[in-house]
Amino acid sequence: MYGEALGCGGTRRAGGGVRLIAGRLVMGPDLAAEPRAGRAALVDWYCRAGRNWTGQRLQPWAARMGVTEPELDVRDLGDRWGSYRPPQAGAGVKGLMSLGWPLFQLPMHLIDYVIAHELAHVKVPGHREDFWRLLRTALPEYEERRADLDELGRRLWMGDVR
What we know:
Layout: E1 18-21, E2 24-27, H1 29-32, H2 35-65, E3 71-75, E4 82-85, E5 96-100, H3 108-123, H4 129-138, H5 142-153
Helix pairs in contact: 2-3, 3-4
């Protein structure tokens, strides 16, 4: 559906990677000539940029919601924006929040919505009323952001290569 499910990392090429220049993503000509390699480089860029950006946003949201800050992963999640996996036995006290790389094409307020949504799962699994109550406490306008995400999300590049 979204092309090959490529992970993040390891796609750099000397002199021809993806860079952000004056607000635009620029790809070297060698990558632009190879659709699969170009896709992998773009996905890698979004994963690295997403990890860096979210690393600065996660702690304030976790503190606001009164939850333990989970480990963070940015990767290809197919058609999902994010997921949360509780701590595994013997793996420490932190869970794992995964965010899909396409999310980082969206405006900051929608990325924050997904972060807050996944952090609510630290306390409440599933989407029962207590989940939405916790999310509303941290982000009173969550319903508007959810609707915006549904609308804008339909227009994003999700990794298809033609």
